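Subject: Protein record for review, amino acid sequence with backbone structure tokens
Category: Structural biology, sequence-to-fold work with a learned token vocabulary.
Format: Residues in single-letter code; tokens as whole numbers, each standing for a residue.
Body of memo: The sequence and its backbone structure tokens, given next.
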Amino acid sequence: MQQCCEYSKLNPQCETNSNRSKFAGDTKVRFFERFSNYNSTSHEFYRSNEENVVDQIESAQLDGILPVQANDRQKVNVRVSKHGAWISRNMDSTTVDRIPLVNIVFSLAYDDGFNRYNVAMVVKARQSEPEYKCHVFQCNSLREADEFLKKIDHLFNSVVDTIERREAEECEWVDV
């Protein structure tokens, strides 16, 4: 089943504190969901979702829809908490986007081959719609891109641990 994915042209200069970023705009592209019982000979289904997302980003860059380099883009801050991601303009703190943590589908980092290190964060746009939005960030180094992903991963693990602890505390033990 093909589903549409909207790519947001966010190209930040990632930092570990505030993740100063640059904003460019939005465009729609395709994203493919995988179903375990779906058999297809289509080329897209032989590749991982991550590979397909990187392909879509690079195609959008080649078509001029997404910028290849973020030098002249407006800076934004990216903050991630247990509530989700908040993207705001660096100049006046105006909110560009708020993403609930539950809507983040996956994130990935990759080197585009020109010494630019990108992070892509794929998020569910609306629960009732089959669309995805992919925010693309550009970092100064692969280490910064990895640090960004580690923070998101750590945050998800912390939330899962908290939920598991609450469930364990609420569990009533029964002798068998």
About this structure: The helical segments are 49-62, 142-170. Strands lie at 2-10, 21-32, 74-81, 84-89, 95-100, 104-111, 117-124, 132-139. Residues 1-18, 23-29 have pLDDT under 50 and may be disordered.
